[in-house]
Specification:
The protein is built from 7 helices and 6 strands, in the order H-H-H-E-E-E-E-E-E-H-H-H-H. The protein has a 6-stranded antiparallel β-sheet with strand order 1-6-2-3-4-5. Strand 2 and strand 3 form a beta hairpin. The longest helix has 13 residues.
Length: about 240
């Protein structure tokens, strides 16, 4: 079984296990959100995305490229899913992440039993919090394919280590200037990064509304990372928060 096949099987097994549900406030097991679910899956099969710095949708691409994934977005019809292979990661940088599992289906951590991202009970209360469903275009910004399965198989056959992969450029997250009162997907991205770093944004989690809780979380993050704690998310804070690796 290749590494990609192992990742697909583990993701499906977790989706079918009611002990695992969706929760963005407690996202590294037993509950997960969309990105931590798949980062965890690949970590468990030996591709150390989390260890390499991937923590959510906005910063998964850089570590993935360094660990043997390739950006094959241009080779795929995102509308229909034509060209996808089992194990391909489907990434929307600010909103969602899923994995194609074959036969026109994907697996993803979707939403909790309240139709929200936080505040549900531990485990899958609906059978659909983490699930396999038909493919759809979220829309996806990027498709990442693991390319080292053949290398691993050839190395095991010949007992000769494969050559080190060539270095690849990393993806730099670019978000607009954000402050108290802002709303939208960019705020979701900021909130997701804060939550992933241990700075809670209040009971509503990453709701896309830059309110008082998000302002307080950002100021605390800035103060603890030697930044100007002004509550404004600008280039300096972005550079530190979304550094890759």
């Amino acid at each position: 079984m290749t590494t990609s096949q192992s990742a697909v099987q583990l993701a499906i097994d977790l989706a079918n296990d009611p002990a695992h549900g969706y929760d963005q406030g407690s996202r590294w097991g037993p509950d997960f959100d969309c990105s931590s679910f798949l980062i965890h899956v690949w970590e468990q099969v030996g591709v150390k995305l989390k260890s390499a710095g991937a923590s959510y949708t906005g910063n998964v691409r850089g570590p993935a490229l360094r660990l043997g994934f390739a950006d094959i977005t241009a080779k795929v019809n995102l509308r229909t899913g034509s060209g996808l292979q089992p194990g391909d990661l489907l990434v929307n940088y600010t909103q969602h992440m899923a994995m194609y599992v074959g036969n026109g289906q994907l697996v993803h951590a979707s939403i909790n039993e309240k139709g929200a991202i936080t505040g549900g009970q531990t485990g899958d209360q609906t059978g659909r919090e983490i699930c396999v469903r038909s493919y759809y275009n979220h829309p996806w910004d990027c498709v990442l394919r693991y390319t080292r399965d053949d290398e691993v198989e050839k190395a095991s056959e010949s007992d000769t280590p494969s050559a080190a992969p060539a270095s690849v450029p990393t993806f730099t997250v670019q978000l607009p200037l954000l402050r108290l009162g802002c709303r939208g997907p960019a705020v979701v991205a900021l909130q997701g990064a804060l939550i992933a770093s241990g700075y809670g944004c209040g009971p509503d989690g990453a709701d896309g509304d830059f309110g008082g809780n998000t302002d307080a979380a950002l100021r605390k993050y800035q103060a603890e990372h030697s930044l100007d704690a002004d509550g404004v998310f600008g280039p300096d804070t972005c550079k530190i928060m979304f550094r890759e690796g």
